[in-house]
Specification:
Elements (H helix, E strand, L loop, with lengths): L13 E3 L6 E3 L2 E6 L3 H6 L10 E5 L4 E3 L2 E5 L6 E3 L1 E7 L8 H7 E9 L1 E2 H9 L5 H4 L5 E3 L3 E2 L10 E6 L2 E7 L7 H8 L9 E4 L7 E2 L5 E6 L5 E8 L1
Parallel strand pairs: 3-15, 5-11, 6-18
Antiparallel strand pairs: 1-2, 3-4, 7-10, 7-16, 8-9, 8-15, 9-11, 9-12, 13-14, 13-17, 17-18
Helix pairs in contact: 2-5
The structure holds manganese (II) ion.
Length: 233
């Protein structure tokens, strides 16, 4: 018997892939916390060098670059975070560093938009970060560049501007946990699959935006990401 659904299911969001007409469907979005020492310091915490830690955003928070998103409800401190995004391209579970390197499909520029006031309130009360981080329309990801089309991760510049003024300016070599280390470590807890994105954390210089602000971000060799902050809902 064919079953019908009570209501329509949204399609998985997708990200374009440079050099191909095929798109990359996104099933999960993992995010690394505190992966640049200078950002951890500005947040008033120390880096945990024992192991990376994670939070997640629903795939349905994904937005394409160039979009305008509403200033979200429940916050007075909406922050940008510029990040390198890893796209997984092959299954990996409990994989070592070599397996992790092989499981990476490509890289993209991304923005982890954050209700900072709610994140910090949750942190202080030792509660989960969902209200601060799993914000509707808060994961903005630019087209993916396949790993074979990209230089190895080195000292590429990662930067973000608000209305043209540079706010974040660092190097990928500042990443505490390298991309293979992140993929390998996370694969101890999840059966990572194609469709999984990992936002690798943000450098120092995070800050608030207001309606009308235009955010642009880039990483050497990758397609830039941008976002316009719309009126409050
Ligand atoms: Mn982040």
């Amino acid at each position: 018997m064919t079953q019908t659904q009570l209501f329509p299911s949204p399609a998985w969001p997708t990200v374009p892939v440079n050099g191909t007409s095929a798109s990359y469907p996104v099933h999960r979005i993992f995010c690394v916390g505190r992966n640049y020492a200078a950002h951890a310091a500005e947040m008033g915490v120390e880096v945990d060098r024992e192991a990376p830690f994670y939070f997640t955003k629903s795939a349905l928070t994904l937005q394409p670059t160039g979009t305008t998103v509403a200033y979200p409800p429940g916050t007075a401190n909406f922050h940008y975070e510029m990040e390198l995004v890893i796209a997984i391209g092959a299954p990996i579970f409990k994989g070592d560093l070599a397996a992790a390197a092989k499981a990476i499909f490509g890289f993209a520029c991304g923005l982890d938009m954050t209700r900072r006031d709610l994140q910090l309130e949750a942190r202080a009360k030792q509660r989960p970060w969902d209200l601060g981080k799993d914000v509707e329309q808060s994961a903005v990801v630019a087209p993916i560049t396949r790993i074979g089309d990209y230089a190895s991760i080195g000292d590429q510049r990662i930067h973000l501007e608000v209305n043209g003024e540079v706010k974040q300016d660092a190097r990928l070599s500042d990443l505490i946990w390298k991309v293979e280390e992140i993929v390998s470590h996370l694969s101890n807890y999840y059966h990572l699959q194609p469709g999984d994105l990992i936002m690798t954390g943000t450098p120092a210089g995070v800050g608030a935006v207001v309606p009308g602000d235009v955010i642009t971000g880039g990483i050497d060799g990758l397609e830039a990401v941008s976002l316009t902050v719309g009126p409050a809902e």
